[in-house]
Design the sequence.
């Protein structure tokens, strides 16, 4: 197993010592020949879900969670919890598809769907990837601007430079890139841990609203839909299947089941962290802006400026650092997803630097023309509504087929749960889209 993987990675120019060590350790554990126990036994399998989880704490989540907490306090916490539980199932299916079939979602679509459908899906997903990258790039640029007082155009160029450097790690294999992205997730988590300590939330209200569904008027419903719409991202469903398809390779049925259990643990931990970060975002807005009667904090910049008089200078700088880490990491991951989509659907691969250059151009144009960055962030999330069915429906279709999945085919109950969740997410995204097209806020 390890030799086969190292050979494939060598052809791609991505072999690294960290990768080889991870693969060897994973092979021993799957074969039952490793003495490792506890966390040491789990570590070789951690990584793909942490890369994918970045999409769940990107700048779009900052916007929706801050607005939800500022306007309605802790009331919509249950939406954050429910959204992340739904996303957890879909990301688990995506990871399972990669390890069971040895193909990613885009490749399976190319191989098993009519050509006209493949081309349509590719065009839609490329547009979605660019819209996603626009939001993430802008988020990082805003982070640089807030933290260092830079003009937005200069912050945009700095964002491009740093993401180029992060993506350069791909040449060294999967493990260094996973480590850097996971570290950035850790930075965001630490920032919001500090924010939570500073803003002193009402823990009784947190416990209540995390589990009790509640709305207060049409605006709260719209915001709840916005929170859900910013949670499940179509591009990362394609990416997660690619991250697992060749990372640890085995075709032994017993080892496949063991590998899947480790991937479930990876998803549970990574998405659990992402869920806690999202909850902390909304709790911060509830404990500061809503408590102070500032329910109309509608932009990231307003949130940053308002935090200093409420919690002090440290709080606003911590907020800016978390936004910067979110934007840089999610922008890098978005570029990788774009590569997976193009290579999977068309069997074409362009250099990462060229894709990064192309996908960052819309964001640089937005900055240069002077559009409102936060408004652009929100509008970019609308584009994701169009792409969601093109990712979720084929994911469920392929994971329920035994000829694709083998021993890891979905159970009927799993497929039923995924169908219900997918239908709910798609319908709510369409509802949000219609509201925004009608001029709703």
Sequence:
């Amino acid at each position: 197993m390890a030799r086969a993987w190292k050979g494939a990675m060598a052809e791609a120019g991505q072999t690294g010592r960290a990768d080889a060590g991870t693969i060897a350790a994973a092979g021993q554990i799957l074969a039952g020949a490793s003495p490792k126990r506890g966390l040491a036994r789990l570590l070789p399998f951690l990584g793909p879900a942490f890369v994918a989880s970045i999409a769940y704490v990107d700048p779009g989540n900052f916007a929706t969670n801050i607005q939800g907490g500022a306007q309605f306090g802790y009331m919509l916490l249950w939406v954050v919890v429910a959204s992340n539980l739904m996303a957890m199932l879909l990301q688990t299916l995506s990871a399972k598809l990669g390890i069971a079939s040895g193909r990613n979602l885009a490749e399976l679509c190319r191989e098993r769907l009519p050509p006209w459908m493949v081309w349509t899906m590719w065009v839609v997903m490329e547009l979605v990837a660019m819209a996603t990258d626009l939001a993430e790039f802008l988020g990082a640029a805003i982070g640089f601007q807030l933290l260092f007082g830079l003009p937005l155009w200069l912050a945009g160029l700095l964002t491009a430079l740093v993401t180029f450097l992060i993506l350069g790690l791909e040449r060294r294999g999967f493990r260094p890139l996973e480590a850097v992205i996971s570290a950035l997730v850790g930075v965001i988590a630490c920032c919001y841990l500090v924010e939570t300590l500073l803003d002193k939330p009402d823990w009784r209200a947190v416990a209540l609203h995390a589990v009790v569904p509640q709305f207060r008027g049409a605006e709260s419903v719209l915001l709840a839909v916005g929170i859900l719409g910013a949670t499940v991202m179509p591009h990362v469903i394609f990416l997660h299947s690619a991250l697992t398809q060749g990372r640890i390779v085995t075709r032994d049925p017993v080892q496949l089941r063991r590998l899947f259990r480790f991937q479930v643990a990876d998803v549970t931990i990574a998405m659990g962290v992402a869920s806690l970060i999202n909850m902390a975002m909304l709790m911060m807005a509830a404990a500061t802006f809503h408590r102070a009667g500032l329910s109309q904090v509608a932009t990231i910049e307003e949130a940053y400026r308002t935090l200093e008089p409420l919690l002090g200078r440290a709080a606003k700088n911590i907020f800016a650092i978390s936004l910067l880490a979110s934007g840089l990491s999610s922008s890098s991951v978005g570029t990788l997803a774009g590569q997976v989509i193009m290579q999977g659907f068309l069997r074409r691969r362009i250099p990462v630097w060229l894709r990064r250059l192309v996908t960052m151009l819309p964001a640089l144009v937005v900055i240069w023309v002077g559009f409102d960055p936060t408004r652009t962030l929100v509008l970019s999330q609308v584009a994701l509504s169009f792409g969601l069915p093109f990712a979720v429906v084929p994911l469920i279709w392929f994971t329920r087929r035994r000829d694709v999945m083998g021993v890891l085919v979905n159970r009927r109950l799993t497929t039923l749960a995924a169908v219900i969740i997918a239908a709910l997410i798609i319908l709510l995204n369409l509802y949000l889209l219609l509201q925004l097209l009608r001029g709703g806020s």
Notes: The chain has a mean pLDDT of 80. Residues 253-290 form the longest helix (38 residues).
